[in-house]
């Protein structure tokens, strides 16, 4: 069963600010999350909120899975050194 993927406003800004070659790779990974929100290599993040992260080279996609309504909500996209700030 496919999940619906939505991006927060800040995640949409993060995505739009990426260089074209990085944008393409991140976009492909986001689309793949609709089919498998817990792919090999995904990590559940510590702390409250039930966030997950997946690698795309030096970038990370941070997201929340809502299984009851089949939704993947992308919360943040960014460089691995900075993506975790403010979560």
Describe what you observe in this structure.
β4 and β5 (71-79) form a beta hairpin. The protein has helices at 9-16, 20-35; strands spanning 4-7, 43-44, 51-56, 59-66, 71-79. The mean pLDDT is 94. With 87 residues, it is α+β, with helices and mostly antiparallel strands. The protein has a five-stranded mixed beta sheet with strand order 1-5-4-3-2. The chain is globular, with a radius of gyration of 12 Å.
Order of adjacent strands in the largest pleated sheet: 1-5-4-3-2
Largest sheet: 5 strands, mixed
The total of beta strands comes to: 5
What pattern of helices and strands is seen along the backbone? EHHEEEE
Tell me the β content: 25-35%
Main structural class: alpha+beta
Brief sketch in words of this structure:
The chain has about 90 residues and is an alpha+beta fold. The chain is built from 2 helices and 5 strands; from the N terminus they run E-H-H-E-E-E-E.
Which structural traits does this protein have?
single chain, 87 residues, alpha+beta, five-stranded mixed β-sheet, 28% helix, 33% strand
Protein topology:
Elements: E1 4-7, H1 9-16, H2 20-35, E2 43-44, E3 51-56, E4 59-66, E5 71-79
Parallel strand pairs: 1-5
Antiparallel strand pairs: 2-3, 3-4, 4-5
